[in-house]
Amino acid sequence: MVPMSEAADFQRAQPMVPRIAHVRRRRHDAPDVWTLELELTDGAHFDYAPGQFNMLTAFGVGEAAISVSGDPAAGPLIHTIRAVGPVSRALTQLGPGEPIGVRGPFGAGWPMAQAEGRDVVVVAGGLGLAPLRPALYRLLGERARYGKVTLLFGARRPEDILFRHEVESWRARFDIDVDVTVDHAGSDWRGHVGVVTTLISRLEIEPAKSIAMVCGPEVMMRFVALALMDKGIGEGAIYLSMERNMKCAIGHCGHCQLGPTFICRDGPVFTFARLRPLLTVKEL
Ligand SMILES: Cc1cc2nc3c(=O)[nH]c(=O)nc-3n(C[C@H](O)[C@H](O)[C@H](O)COP(=O)(O)OP(=O)(O)OC[C@H]3O[C@@H](n4cnc5c(N)ncnc54)[C@H](O)[C@@H]3O)c2cc1C
Ligand code: FES
């Protein structure tokens, strides 16, 4: 087994060279969405911060940026992937024992240190719950460090609810408030119907001591950030995770550039204060 620090040093020195991992388990989470548990062949534990991402290689097909969705404190390296194109489809079709390339972790993650001592509002839309899950594990695993924790989660339909059993187990806890909504549902759905911003109007918070972490489709994040500002949370305390096309993930190729900002190197997590002017800049 390679010591953890040695493996991390190798990745820092050779950021374009993937390490090899094998799929340990593959689970179907929602239509077109699979979760892969990976094991690095060098046996090292994969150290990362909540909100960071890896470049995953489907050999012979290509690479894609995928956030880590597991528990940063323990367990295997976990990624949750929606099959939208050639690379993501190939990744989601990998079965147990098959090899996969892993470069990373990259980027600046969720503001876990800034959140200490404050109330934390986590807002996820659809697959956006995957990059937020490591932050939720950290918030719940080190519960005494944070104030009130709230998760607002919106999915398109009940069958799109990600990590359903886990969301239900969080909902049963007394130390986190969980509110779930779907955009559309049949008569058998007993929960809330409406976009995730409708949950924000009934949110009870002390805005001055709150911090928000938001991930989902870009338009959803923009509306959520504005609704959180209406509640009194400052734009500097609202953090969003951005997606752009990525190639190198280390600030060299310019594929992910948004104005003067490189999403891979400077983000993917940014405050709304920083992103707001950039969201009006046309993608390069
Ligand atoms: C920092 C970061 C973290 C990411 N984390 C995840 C993650 O945890 N899980 C995950 O599944 N994806 C994640 N993505 C998105 C993923 O990298 C892209 O979906 C990737 O481009 C897929 O590659 P592809 O070759 O399969 O499809 P492409 O050929 O790149 O795209 C195929 C088609 O799908 C569309 N498309 C691309 N991305 C998306 C998307 N996100 N949603 C809807 N349509 C899309 C494209 O416009 C195109 O029409 C992340 C991206 C970034 C930048
Ligand atoms: S992906 Fe190359 S600069 Fe960001």
TrEMBL record:
Binds 1 [2Fe-2S] cluster per subunit. GO terms for biological process: pyrimidine nucleotide biosynthetic process. SUPFAM superfamilies: Ferredoxin reductase-like, C-terminal NADP-linked domain, Riboflavin synthase domain-like. Pfam families: DHODB_Fe-S_bind, NAD_binding_1. [2Fe-2S] cluster binds at residues 248, 253, 256, 264. Its cofactor is [2Fe-2S] cluster. The keyword rRNA-binding does not apply. Residues 16-112 form the FAD-binding FR-type domain. Keywords: 2Fe-2S, Iron, Iron-sulfur, Metal-binding. One of its GO terms (molecular function) is 2 iron, 2 sulfur cluster binding. PANTHER family: ANAEROBIC SULFITE REDUCTASE SUBUNIT B (PTHR43513:SF1), DIHYDROOROTATE DEHYDROGENASE B (NAD(+)), ELECTRON TRANSFER SUBUNIT (PTHR43513). This is Ni/Fe hydrogenase subunit gamma.
